[in-house]
Specification:
By secondary structure, this protein is an alpha/beta fold. A hairpin with a 6-residue loop joins β20 and β21. GO terms for molecular function: ATP-dependent peptidase activity; serine-type endopeptidase activity. Its main location: membrane. InterPro entries: BrxL-like (IPR014061), BrxL_N (IPR046838), Lon_proteolytic (IPR008269), P-loop_NTPase (IPR027417), Ribosomal_Su5_D2-typ_SF (IPR020568), Ribsml_uS5_D2-typ_fold_subgr (IPR014721). Pfam families: BrxL_ATPase, BrxL_N, Lon_C.
């Protein structure tokens, strides 16, 4: 038995009777063809303890029940014979049912026994309607012979492999209150079978996003990425309330409603309907995609004159045949989708989040946890009950989104925010910490912006503004959120940088040529300006000295009533090209200091060049054309240059002029106000 760590000791007390060692279920994986939650259902009954002897006894019971009730290949006739001898036999299997119109009775299918004509009462069917739309795992008792239907077998009793306990959410909330947020995050990751330390922070974000459809009604999500990263694991192994559709045709009757008999489809019966290998999915009717789009927008679909509401979310999973960078070069990130929808921007607009599956590692046995986690049926039941709650009313006066978000964008982001907050805070009475709220908002904005960026790539002008931003609090600084895969660290993004950060171009030392730099200024309590760079070149020190003097002498013109001596400004200059000298970048440093002091971002996509004397006189730039070419080559949309360099730019090529806007300034104040954000 693995040694209990501090988190194990905490959760076994906080969730007494509801936790299980997650490696126990792995003992049965591969031996029995059932999802993980089926084995955990039994393990949770007999092994929800830390006592090694009790676990050993419980495992023996679980082993016996699985051996006795799960039919192996070739044993079906033996089980049928036992039913004849003993009158009944118990099995665990995926139960489905259908209406036989000839006899006007329902017939159940028991796949492991190769039986598809088992009589089942109407009462049992209507009590568990999900058996009519894909079925569910259950413990069933099958009797031999049925006098009423003259069928050889009948289904007498049925117990779904799921928890039906009303106080689950209260139990979860009570245990959650005894844990820190980080402990709770780690515990949730263990509860789905993964050891948190095996995942990067980015991979953990992906895993939490995969949980959102379980707690948020009508949540539409797409995740594409490499093969073997466990994209479908949660939807197939963890919860009985999700249904996996693997390839093939998605019939309108099966998905929504069967017009022949009025039977409701998958979206009415399950919390999550997941399309695996989505590139192979096709609809049996021409209007299938339109019905899907209508449902994803409003949660409704029509059957004749009747409008039917449902709450099942749509999750689409697929694989890239190439890496994400190459996929963006050859097309867009919806490329692997079926041809009916891969270029349909209206369909994309219904997607609430695009999860970056390429940030999750390939599943390896070493990633599996050996520690305690919530029993899967308890966890899935808690998630299901959270679907009826909301956390948005708790944060409406704390988060404010930028103008770039449309109405659909806001609804999509809010659904992701709401889902993640419910996962982190299962009780609405818990205080939502600022750092966790900001983490949730940034993830939600990024995943929705990824959708908009693909719409923009397809060429729709209505989606051109993708500068998603937010403010934490009424007086908070506006922060912009980008999608990391769109830009490299050295590429100048069209998004505004945070206050105090600017892109700069300046000459290097001796024969280095021009260099690209990123200047970052942080503000802390104090009263000085200091350079963070160790062993800074002489030219960089001179640029900082000039910027410091001009800020002090022209502070009224640059930052108004703010006292430049009121804080300590730490300046860091990062070289992003071969040139390391960073000389003659006084203006970019001054603008970074001013931006930090004002708490306002500069315009996105702009790179700044130029320097000045300690008295504020703007010095000439001698290689303005080279700087302009470097700026354009690194993704800039505009360059800020001293007006004295205007004649040098007369030789700019038509191609460069079409890609890059040149903004001229005459003094430091003019430079600042021409690039200061709104």
């Amino acid at each position: 038995m693995p040694a209990l760590d501090q988190l194990d000791q905490l959760v076994t007390k906080a969730f007494d009777g509801y936790v299980v060692r997650k490696d126990l279920a792995q003992k049965f994986k591969g031996n029995y063809a059932v999802p993980t939650y089926v084995a955990e259902f039994l393990i949770g009954k007999y092994c929800a303890t830390t006592d090694e002897e009790e676990i050993k006894e419980g495992l023996e019971i679980v082993q016996r029940q699985l051996s006795e009730r799960i039919v192996r290949a070739g044993e079906q006739e033996l089980y049928k014979a036992n039913a004849k001898v003993h009158g009944t036999v118990k099995v665990i299997d995926l139960i489905t049912a259908r209406l036989d119109v000839k006899s006007d009775t329902f017939l159940a299918t028991i796949p492991s026994l190769l039986l598809n004509d088992v009589h089942i009462s109407s009462d049992l069917v209507y009590e568990h309607e999900r058996m009519l739309t894909g079925g569910f795992y259950a413990e069933v008792e099958i009797a031999y012979g049925d006098p009423e239907s003259n069928r050889p077998f009948s289904l007498e009793r049925l117990r779904p492999i799921q928890l039906s306990k009303r106080g689950v959410l209260q139990d979860v909330a009570r245990g959650r209150e005894e844990m820190t947020t980080q402990e709770w995050k780690d515990f949730l990751i263990r509860s789905v079978g993964i050891e948190p330390s095996s995942l990067s922070a980015r991979a953990q974000d992906v895993l939490f996003l995969r949980m959102v459809p379980f707690v948020e009604k009508g949540y539409n999500m797409i995740e594409l990425g490499p093969r073997g990263t466990g994209k479908s694991y949660l939807y197939q192994q963890i919860s009985p309330y999700s249904h996996l559709v693997s390839g093939g045709k998605a019939t309108v009757a099966k998905m929504f409603v069967n017009n022949a008999n009025g039977q409701r489809g998958l979206v009415c019966q399950y919390d999550v309907v997941c399309f695996d290998e989505v590139s192979g999915i096709s609809f049996d009717q021409k209007d299938g995609v339109n019905i899907m789009k209508g449902y994803m927008e409003s949660g409704e679909f029509s059957r004749g004159r009747e409008s039917i509401r449902a709450e099942g979310g749509i999750v689409m999973l697929g694989n890239f045949d190439v890496d994400v960078e190459h996929q963006q070069r050859i097309g867009h990130l919806f490329g692997p989708m079926p041809k009916e929808i891969r270029d349909d921007t209206a369909f994309m607009d219904r997607i609430h989040s695009y999860v970056p599956g390429w940030d999750y590692p390939k599943i390896h046995p070493d990633m599996m946890t050996e520690h305690y986690g919530l029993v899967s049926d308890f966890l899935s039941e808690a998630w299901r009950q959270l679907r009826g709650e909301s956390r948005l009313h708790l944060i409406n006066d704390r988060i404010f989104f930028g103008d770039a978000l449309s109405g659909r964008d806001r609804r999509a982001v809010n659904k992701t925010v709401n889902g993640l907050l419910k996962i982190l805070y299962p009780s609405s009475e818990m205080e939502i910490e600022d750092d966790q709220l900001e983490w949730v908002v940034r993830i939600a904005l990024e995943c929705r912006r990824r959708v908009k960026e693909q719409q923009k790539r397809i060429g729709s002008a209505e989606f051109r503004n993708t500068m998603f931003s937010y403010r934490l609090g009424i007086d908070g600084i506006e922060q912009y959120v980008s999608t990391p895969e769109l830009h490299s660290d050295s590429e100048i993004s069209p998004d505004p940088l945070p206050p105090g950060q600017v892109w700069a171009i300046g000459p290097g030392e001796a024969n280095e040529g021009s260099g690209l730099y990123k200047i970052e200024v942080t503000v802390t309590p104090g009263s000085s300006i200091r350079l963070v760079n160790v062993r800074a070149p002489y030219g960089l020190k001179e640029s900082l000295r000039a910027a410091e003097q001009v800020l002090y002498t022209q502070n009224k013109l640059l930052i108004g009533d703010r006292d430049p001596h009121g804080n300590e400004y730490s300046v860091q200059v990062r070289a992003l090209s071969a040139a390391k000298g960073a000389s003659s970048i006084g203006i970019p440093i001054l603008l970074a200091l001013s931006s930090a002091a004002l708490g306002r971002s500069l315009k996105g996509g702009v790179v700044i060049a130029g320097t000045m004397s300690v008295g504020g006189t703007i010095e000439p730039v001698y290689n303005g054309l080279d700087m302009a070419e470097m700026a354009a080559d690194n993704g800039a949309s505009a360059i800020l240059l001293p007006v004295s360099s205007r004649k040098q730019l007369n030789d700019m090529s038509d191609d460069l002029a079409s890609r890059l806007m040149v903004i001229y300034y005459k003094d430091a104040r003019d430079a600042l106000y021409k690039v200061l954000g709104d």
